[in-house]
């Protein structure tokens, strides 16, 4: 507690002269005070171990003391661990500590009355204690300055982070601020007596907040419900939500209008989404089957994952580092973006050496070896890049406005506006084309055979890439019947200024002609180059021979002389290939005769 005369803490006070827990070096002492009651923890240790710690120059920044039977005792600091003497820990040393602490609960934790220290036990197979971890608990006043504006909103807050990053310390300070500064009725569910300390009287660090202890860890969810039903809290503070029952209890509390502040196992929101036990904290995940049109609109599979319900916690804070937190002010939106494969923009909050909070926006990066890569916010280009920027593409359906030099004024206006918009992050790789455009062109197929489309692109070596994302497409290639019947596709394409190129049928010649028209390669004065392999299915000699027969008949007889030609009898499969080849020459053909003598007749134009 603070002494009003000296502005110091009445217990053992350590000012922040070196890095300690959350705050960096060179902080003003008035900015943050720390109380750790270190002497009371040292008092339970064996004398020879206690003397070595007291003589260490950085003993005030001790994190924990580890004592394992038959090993040297170890003192761990934030950046280094040292051995305490040359004498291994004996059973007598362990018993010396055990007799001076409270009883160990079901989760093998004990404490020192009216302190925040935690002593955790390691037992052998018979239940005998053979190791102790004595963790120093510190109350740090002023650690939540980064999110104090979020705390006062009354929305539920979930804290995420790896062990030792300061989640419990922040939780304790949030409880104190809400109870003392905002005069709210705060109840802490203290399962391990880690938030408010051991003993029946809570530690002064929680201020006016009340504390409910839990007899056994598996009963935490029951005590959570009991707190709401019996004590009329405005805020419930919970540490370590780890089971499905606790997640359900948290949802029940949130639906009753009580603000929740808690921590959960997991470093990032992605961890909770993948955790079936705790996914309900962020809304729960369910598989949904989409209709054909909706799946095409999204460019996704028909079965997708979606959020099942509103999140229990509206705000999530990822404590990546002690001075760097990532804030998600709308958990629902973040989860929806992640499930649809979109990386959310992160709000990163940091504290500088003068105690000033800095808020920046960063693009989410993939997690590599458990660490998120950092990236500054990208700046939108002054003008767009890509195929549309070359000015060669225009919508198929004219807009209802006056024209100017072959382009609509409405299109020009929307194009100007698009220059100021931030382009989405994609994996597109483009190279300059012969006319200054960027290649390849990203085409969104609608009702087109993907295998035939890939075959045409590959054999003709066209600068085209097929995409499933309509937002990132440069053009749409679709059947004319689909375009005519689906007004929604036309509306979306018109809104995004993505032109639609229609083809008559789902055949190789039509697909080839549509792509060439899209690329501006369909000059009628130039002969159309093609490869017979475009029209084959298996690519065997029989198919090539039949197609070569049709090609020679067209080029040497039908076109020069204007006479019809009948080909040799072929199977139905090969006749279909020959029909497609004839269509490529813009000629007509029919099948006549009876099997097995059914054959193709080619007519002149």
From TrEMBL:
Keyword check for Nucleotide-binding: yes
UniProt superkingdom: Bacteria
Annotated keywords: ATP-binding, Nucleotide-binding
One MF annotation (Gene Ontology) recorded for this entry: nucleic acid binding
SUPFAM superfamilies, A to Z: P-loop containing nucleoside triphosphate hydrolases, R3H domain
Signal peptide residue numbers: none
One Pfam family of this chain: R3H
Location of the R3H domain: 541-605
Record-linked InterPro entries: AAA+_ATPase, P-loop_NTPase, PTPase_dom, R3H_AAA, R3H_dom, R3H_dom_sf, Spore_III_AA_AAA+_ATPase
Keyword Transit peptide: no
Region annotated Disordered, chain positions: 374-404
Gene3D superfamilies according to UniProt: P-loop containing nucleotide triphosphate hydrolases, R3H-like domain
This protein's name: Single-stranded nucleic acid binding R3H domain protein
Organism field: Gloeothece verrucosa (strain PCC 7822) (Cyanothece sp. (strain PCC 7822))
